[in-house]
Amino acid sequence: MRVPAKVNLQLAVGPRREDGFHALVNVFHAVSLFDEVTVKAAPPRQSRALTELTAAGQSESHLARVPLDGSNLAARAATLLAEETGAGSPVDIHIDKRIPVAGGMAGGSADAAAALVACDRLWGCGLPRERLLELAARLGSDVAFGLVGDTAVGTGRGELLEPLASPGRFRWVFALSTRGLSTADVFGEYDRLRPDAPEPRLDAALEKALAGGGARALGRALSNDLQPAALSLLPELERTLEAGRSAGALGALVSGSGPTCAFLLGGGDEDPDEVAEREAGVVAALRSTGLCEQVVPADGDVPGSTVL
Ligand SMILES: C[C@](O)(CO)[C@H](O)COP(=O)(O)OP(=O)(O)OC[C@H]1O[C@@H](n2ccc(N)nc2=O)[C@H](O)[C@@H]1O
Ligand SMILES: Nc1ncnc2c1ncn2[C@@H]1O[C@H](COP(=O)(O)OP(=O)(O)OP(=O)(O)O)[C@@H](O)[C@H]1O
Question: Keywords of this protein's UniProt record, alphabetized (predicted)?
Answer without folding.
Answer: ATP-binding, Isoprene biosynthesis, Kinase, Nucleotide-binding, Transferase
